[in-house]
Design a protein that fits this description.
Order of helices and strands: HEHHEHEEHH
Radius of gyration: 13 Å
Largest sheet: 2 strands, parallel
Helix content: 40-55%
Distance between the termini: 18 Å
Structural class: mainly alpha
Number of strands: 4
Strand order of the largest sheet: 1-2
Number of helices: 6
Length: 111
């Protein structure tokens, strides 16, 4: 995938406020690539190497599941970071998902 796409993904993720989460699909839609949520996931695999840093822990799947947690070291780190921001996680799923969901389509101008 285009490195430029990864950078666009990273820019959106950097905008997610503390205490909020968004989904791979919502990021893809905000970039005009609605069918590319898997590509957003691929970009997130490289988030640890990006500068400035990326709050990758704030990106979950469309149901609020922490599907990316295995890319954290240790995997429990994703839960720790979310809980530190006040997000409740139970059985690897964000509770009150609709309440803490941040929609980049409505929260930011198109990049």
């Amino acid at each position: 995938m285009d490195q430029n796409f990864y950078e666009q993904v990273f820019e959106v993720v950097r905008l997610i406020p503390k205490g909020r989460v968004t989904s791979y699909g919502a990021i893809a839609k905000s970039l005009g690539a609605g069918g590319s949520s898997r590509m957003v996931g691929y970009a997130m695999r490289h988030a640890g190497q990006a500068q400035p840093s990326i709050p990758a822990h704030r990106v979950v799947n469309s149901s609020g599941l922490l599907t990316g947690k295995f890319h954290f070291n240790p995997p429990e780190r994703m839960v720790e970071l979310l809980e530190r921001e006040g997000i409740v996680v139970k059985d690897d799923k964000v509770q009150n998902f609709k309440t803490v969901f941040w929609n980049p389509l409505t929260e930011i101008e198109i990049l």
